[in-house]
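Whiteboard transcription, Tuesday session. T.W. wrote the structure tokens on the left side:
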């Protein structure tokens, strides 16, 4: 079998991040068979099993997990060196309008775009923050970073990865009402809900839906998370939104291992007909995908 290439190493990281050959293939824009062969080639070259395969999902072996951690920074450095070389050869110029959500954008997208601007002094960026699924063409957006499953549309997509969920509650609430050990127990607890939700939360790989109830509702993620921190009940949120609250001991993560499947994170852009995507837009998308996928959010 041929020696492993840099592409095989990158494929291995995508498999680790996604937990699935299928999702890794979608993220990389490759066939399932190609990704499987790439992983097998790397394992054969190293003589070590990196991923344990079962009928339902993939799990990194201890050796694979350690190996992934050591090569991730190296591959990111190689990608950055390549981007620097290309940027020095052909300068990018013009304005790019990008859409993203009001919470995720400032925390994760803005720092990456700041790096992109530093590398491309002739680029201007406008970041449009909205939690609504705005019309990209009507808003004159070149592309948008979106979270969640997307409805069928004519938009082109590029998957970045998946965002983990967290079920959480304040120490005071858990002391007063007990700590649930299984999702089914949530039906006996107060939960903090999104106003537009159908009062059922999906858990586990089979997405089993558990009926929940609560007296506090809001469309605002910030308001819901603050309500949980204040002891109003149990919340469900993307882990990145509440990581600081968990680290500070303001809330505690519960039902670990029972969380819903990861939330898709992707970039979308409108079909341009016969016109090619401007090089500055393609470069910004490539930069965001490389940086955000390396963060393991």
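and on the right, the sequence the group agreed on:
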């Amino acid at each position: 079998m041929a020696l492993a290439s840099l592409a095989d190493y990158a494929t291995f990281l995508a498999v680790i991040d996604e937990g699935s050959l299928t999702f890794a293939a979608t993220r990389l824009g490759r066939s399932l068979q190609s990704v499987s062969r790439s992983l097998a080639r790397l394992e054969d070259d190293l003589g070590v099993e990196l991923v344990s395969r079962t009928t339902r999902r993939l799990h990194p072996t201890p050796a694979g997990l350690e190996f992934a951690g050591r090569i991730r920074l190296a591959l990111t450095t190689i990608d950055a060196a390549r981007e620097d070389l290309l940027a020095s050869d052909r300068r990018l110029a013009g304005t790019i309008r990008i859409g993203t959500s009001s919470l995720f954008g400032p925390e994760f997208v803005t720092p990456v775009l700041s790096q992109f601007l530093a590398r491309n002094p002739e680029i201007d960026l406008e970041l449009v923050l909205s939690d609504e699924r705005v019309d990209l063409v009507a808003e004159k957006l070149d592309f948008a970073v979106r979270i969640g499953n997307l409805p069928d549309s004519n938009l082109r997509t590029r998957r970045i990865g998946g965002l983990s969920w967290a079920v959480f509650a304040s120490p005071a609430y858990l002391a007063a009402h007990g700590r649930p050990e299984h999702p089914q127990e949530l039906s006996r607890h107060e939960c903090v809900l999104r106003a537009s939700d159908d009062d059922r939360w999906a858990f586990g790989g089979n997405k089993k839906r558990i009926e929940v109830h609560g007296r506090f509702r809001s469309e605002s993620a910030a308001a819901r998370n603050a309500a949980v921190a204040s002891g109003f009940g149990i919340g469900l949120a993307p882990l990145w939104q509440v990581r600081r609250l968990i680290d500070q001991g303001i809330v505690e993560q519960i039902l670990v291992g029972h969380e819903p499947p990861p939330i898709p994170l992707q970039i979308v852009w409108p079909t341009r007909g016969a016109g090619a995507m401007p090089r500055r837009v393609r470069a910004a998308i490539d930069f965001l995908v490389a940086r955000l996928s390396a963060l393991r959010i």
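Someone added at the bottom: Residues 91-160+265-294 form a domain with the D-Maltodextrin-Binding Protein; domain 2 fold (CATH 3.40.190.10).
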